[in-house]
Structure formats: structure tokens, C-alpha cells
Amino acid sequence: MAQYLAINQDPQFPRDELSEYLRQTLVQRYGADLAEDAADADIYDLLAVASEIQRERNPADPHKLLAELPFTIYVTAGQHSLLSEALRGAGKDPLVEFCRWHEDLEDVPSVFEEEPDYVPSVERPLVFHLFGILSEPDSLVLAEDDYFDYLIRVSRNPDLIPLPVRAALTDTALLFLGFRLEDQTFRVLYRSLMQQEGRGRRRKYSHIAGQVMPDEQNFTLPERAQRYLESYFQQTDISLFWGSVDDFAHELQVQLSAVEVTPEKKPERASLRRR
User: Fold this and answer.
1) Which one of 66, 87, 103, 213 is at 20 to 30 Å from 54 when CA atoms are compared?
2) Is-contact 101 149, C-beta < 8 A?
3) Residue 58 burial by CB count (10 A; 0-12/13-18/19+): exposed, middle or buried?
């Protein structure tokens, strides 16, 4: 769809429309809990309130659970701020960075330029957006051509991915959560990982991918599709957890139930909430 719009309208059209589409979706989904003027609010303020509402409603909210874990680096394919908001809700101070894969982004200052001595920590984790972020429309990877251009440029210039992120992707255990393993976003991410220097070190770790069970709506032969995915990712030591993101989050919560978690500190975003 994004490729069609980019060709039949102009390349910027999908990027310009994404924020507005997301705004309408948030207002539709959370309208009863929002102030009357929320529809005109900044998209990031709306996302902050939506994140807070979701965390209040669902104790096993995936973003909430991930934010409470002692991670120093989060790599996300999401182009929104829900993960960052969950981290703030957990009392942390995340620093947000994104891949400058497009030439128009070369002059946008990075976190590492503003804070040369910055080292990701549990208290100040790094949130790295692989495929762009809403606040920088030129960074958004949406159309099919964008994915090809992204993969070519990142392959040619590995420094487009910050060193701490590259190190984490090659020398730590990885958890892939929220992807359909057959979709284009995951495939580009997967191929990028396979081409990185030092990728052999990943074999020292166990990796997990939470995967929705193939169904008849998306696959002609779901059982064969399941076996194919299992064999495909087994060769790269990625174990599959069959179930939804919520299923995985619930299981993770059960496994970590004995771990003491710092109480979350609620962000003050009351101006958009309907009381």
C-alpha cells in the first residue's frame, strides 16, 4: 500500500499521512478517556496518554513488562514512542536514537554527538529505532523501495547502526517480539543481522522469537508453514515461541514473578486525559 501511494501520489505522501492515521486511530480507540481537544494534540502527547492508559488496563502489557526488565539497549522496529513512554513510566530516562539510512538525515544530530560519553545503562537505556521515527518523517521506512534502499545503504555503511547497537546485536541473546516472521520488516532486519561482522558470536547464545501460529487466512497449508519456519530459523539458533505477543508477555510475567521490579513512576500527562 505504501509503495502504491508513493508512486501514485508522491514519495512523501505515506510519511505525511502516517501520523494523521495514527492520531485518528488513537482518538477512536481511547476517545472515551481523552479530553475533547485531544484530537488536536501533538501526536507524541497522544501516544504518551495512550501508553499510560494501556499499561493501567493491562498489567501484562508487553511494553510495560519489557520496560521493567534490566535492559540497557532496546532495538525496535516500531516508529512510535510507546516503548519509550513505557520506560519513562517505569521511572527510567530513555535516550532515543534512529537509523540515518537516508541522505537527508545526515545533518540530524545524534545522541552520541550530543553526549559523547554516553553509555547505555539500565537507568538511561538506549531505544534505537531501526526503521525510523515519527518525529523525523524522512527516516521512516515504509514503501517497498525504502526497504531495498535501507538494506543496501546499511550493508554498505555499517556505521549507520551505532556501535553499541551493533555490539548488542552480535554478542547478546536476542528476543524478537511483535513480528510476523514472514513479513518484510522482519526479513530485512534478519538479513541485516546475518550480514553483520561478528555474527558468529551469536551462536554462543539462545535466541527466541515470539511468533503467531500460521493460520489458513495467511497460509494455504498452515502446518507446513509452521514446520518451514521452524527449520528456517533453527539454522540460526532462533527458537520459536508459538503464540501472540500477549501470550508471550503473560508467560514472561509468570517466569519473572519472583523477580523484584522497581515500582513504576507514572508520567504526568493528565492534560489529555478525560477525568
Assistant:
1) 213
2) yes
3) middle
Are 189 and 77 in contact by the 8 Å Cβ rule? The answer is yes
Q: Which domain holds residue 250?
A: 171-183+199-258
Closest CA to 90 of 33, 134, 51, 129: 51
Three-state secondary structure call for residue 10: coil
Q: Which amino acid is at 75?
A: V
Q: Is residue 253 part of a domain?
A: yes
Residue at 203 is within a domain: yes
pLDDT(271) > 60: no
**DSSP helix/strand/coil, 211:** strand
How far apart are alpha carbons 125 and 122 in whole angstroms? 5
pLDDT (tens digit per residue) in 198-221: 556 656 666 777 766 666 566 667
In a domain, 24, yes or no: no
DSSP type of residue 263:
P
Question: Would the pLDDT of 146 be above 70?
Answer: yes
Distance CA 129, CA 174 (A): 16
Q: Give the three-state DSSP class for 175.
A: strand
Does residue 236 lie in a domain region? yes
- Written as one string, the DSSP assignment of 121-156 is -SSS-EEEETT-BTTBGGG---SHHHHHHHHHHHHH
E strands of 118-228, at which residues? 126-129, 175-176, 207-211
**Separation between Cα atoms, residue 181 and residue 197, nearest integer Å:** 23
**Which tens digits make up the pLDDT trace of 52-84?**
999 999 888 889 989 998 899 998 888 899 999
Return the C-alpha cell found at 201. Answer: 558470536
pLDDT at 13 over 90: no
Are 267 and 52 in contact, with CB atoms under 8 Å apart? yes
